[in-house]
């Protein structure tokens, strides 16, 4: 789509006779130019307001944000014609916070089939999505060739785009913890380019742990305070400059660091199979975090065994729609069976000492009588009979209780 450039009226008329008709046309074009300028200004104002709404509480801001996006869409529809834009030329926003769309896309596809497209998607002038990725994905899944679209100006900096996309997604539909955590880390690294991504959640946890040791607190409502007050609190708590910068970034997004540390950033530690299940199978992040405890190191099993156990857990959670409490109970049961199996496999020290003595015994160097050797042979044979019975019973017991064979 061509950019709406400012008209250079004076240059346009530089070589035209100054007739009354020309003057009239000049005034008409000037009025159109002023209208266009007002439209563009209003459009940018709306986009800015969408971001500023995040500074209010979530429940209060969500309806207002939806109204602002609706107003922006109506403004764009009135200021330009609705385009039938080729679906294969639309680019998803690479900084889109939401990576999980499965359920919403299925629901939207059904709506598109029954009701048709009610609202156009909003694109930047290069075809990148600003709003309406769910509609675009649904239309694509239905095999549509085009989709109704309107256009708006793209922010100059990618970090501005990431922030706007985050705020829009957060208010319209809650992000899952994994998508939210990865986006917040990316926003922090946009603001502090030299900061490694893995260091962001570590800083939050480190500061909160330090404050807890000192019996200090950020306060439950710090994320709702004015920016100046947030600065004052962090200075009083003697937070280091880089730590303070990270905290202020999240507080500016009205995110409380303690809540992020407790509820959001742990999702970054999910295994790759659980992250895939969250995004591709709609596994809840809370359930995924519980299944994440089934690790090879904790259960003292191989990575392959742990992966199979987590896959089994994913199937159970999705098939039975387990709550977090039910998922936790299921994990406890699995872990208890592994612990029982592991405990039963603990080596007896007395047997190990006896085994070591036998292995070290060199009968070729002893000066034993025939009678002694016969007694030793009979004793060992008797013990072997007892040992064989014990071993057979143990193998039968293990085969019957090994839950991995179920």
UniProtKB/TrEMBL annotation:
**Gene Ontology cellular-component annotations:** chromosome
GO BP terms, alphabetized? chromosome segregation
- Annotated signal sequence is none
> What SUPFAM superfamilies does UniProt report for this protein, alphabetically?
ParB/Sulfiredoxin (SSF110849)
Write the record's keywords in alphabetical order, separated by commas. Answer: Coiled coil
Coiled coil location: 15-82, 363-393
Q: Does the keyword Ribosomal protein apply?
A: no
Q: What is this protein called?
A: ParB N-terminal domain-containing protein
Source organism: Symplocastrum torsivum CPER-KK1
